[in-house]
Amino acid sequence: MSNPQQLRYSKEHEWLSAAEDGVSTVGITEHAANALGDVVYVQLPEVGATVTAGETCGELESTKSVSDLYSPVTGEVVAANQDVVDDPSLVNSAPFEGGWLFKVRVSGEPEDLLSADEYTDFAS
Q1: What are the pLDDT digits (tens) for 15-45?
Q2: Which of 24-28, 40-44, 57-61, 63-67 is the least confident region?
Q3: I need a surface site. Which of 20, 31, 32, 96 has the fewest CB within 10 A?
């Protein structure tokens, strides 16, 4: 399992990109995707919705279970990945690329996020 060094990670197994013009991208980690198994359904927060760090904002359903999606930061959702809604398997095949979930205009500094090395230690 490799975790891109430029990302930050939550203990709920989401990743967060560095903000570009105040907007960060959110997805789930490869570790989470593997633990879930084949993802068959994705429910994402709506564009315009406010998400709160550590709170649920959607869900992922796999052949094994249903898992809540947590926001790693507080802010306003500015995009949801329709490709993942149409083809949930992208979460498994490309969790750090095409399998991203939503983009959020972050309000305030993200807290309690882990570096790639800290997350790797946490997840193992």
Answers
A1: 999 999 999 999 999 999 999 999 999 999 9
A2: 63-67
A3: 20
Q: Is 57 exposed, middle or buried (0-12, 13-18, 19+ CB in 10 A)?
A: buried
Record the tokens describing residue 49, joined without a space. Answer: 């919705």
Q: Round to whole Å and give the CA distance between 99 and 72.
A: 17
Tell me the two tokens of residue 50.
């406010």
**What are the Cα distances from residue 2, in Å, to 22, 38, 99, 117?**
26, 19, 15, 10
What distance lies between CA 69 and its chain's CA centroid? 7
DSSP string, 100-113: --EEEEE-S---SP
Q: How many residues can be counted in the chain?
A: 124
CA 122 to centroid of chain Cα atoms = 17
Q: Which helix (H) or strand (E) holds 9?
A: strand 8-9
Query: 10 Å Cβ neighbour count for 46?
Result: 11
pTM for the model: 0.95
